[in-house]
Amino acid sequence: MELGNNFGERILKREEISKVLFNKIPEFIKSEPKNVQKVKKMVDTTAFFPGGKGLWLEDDQKDILPDILILGQDFSHVEYYNQVASGDIKDIDGATWRNMIKLFKEAEIDFNRCFFSNVFMGLRVSDSMTGNFPGKRSKTYVNESMQFLLFQIETIKPKVIITLGKNPADILSRLNVKGIEIFKNGEVLKTKDEGLKYDVDISGHKCAVLALEHPSMRNSNVKRRVFKEFTGNLAEVEMLKAVK
Q1: DSSP conformational letter for 88
Q2: Which residues touch 132 (CB under 8 Å, ≥6 apart)?
Q3: pTM score, whole prediction
Q4: Which neighbouring-strand residues pair with 145?
């Protein structure tokens, strides 16, 4: 799966990135698998793309272009999105953001450098926020999502890609990318010293790739992480420090 030679200098301004990506989704993702609904509108708030803008909007740093791509699995289910869209709740108040903010602060990561996105652009038509995204059962939908993931990478041109949990790691490993085979099925999360890879080539774009536990389940899962002489929370902190 290749994009060709499109990885030149970025020309988009910070505020243009979200709009360009959102408007391109229908060109890549055309199938409508069972129990998946499209996001109708991108909410102008700090929230994972495509439900929100994917940018850190909590302070005025409009001149900073994101060069760290954070990848979750999906935005959540329809009811959750509707609550975010109506302003009844804020995505940033949830467990994913709370734990991620704490971790990133410990590693001194600038949130303005991050674009917070997902590998699947649809919403779950279910009551569950966890487990495999329903669209993962459709080979066509997965392939379309992988093509759009490549477009996200081409557009943002990140220095670092960070996967959250096993499913984003698995999808990233399917992009015919050499060097991150251990990311398949999230095996990287259980394997010592494999969580951080440098100079990964993705269709001609080279960047570091880092696998983290999903923040929403981090407290129960992070104990298994090992990086150099560090274990648990410190292993993920040190991996982040190594690429920031």
Answers
A1: S
A2: 167
A3: 0.94
A4: none
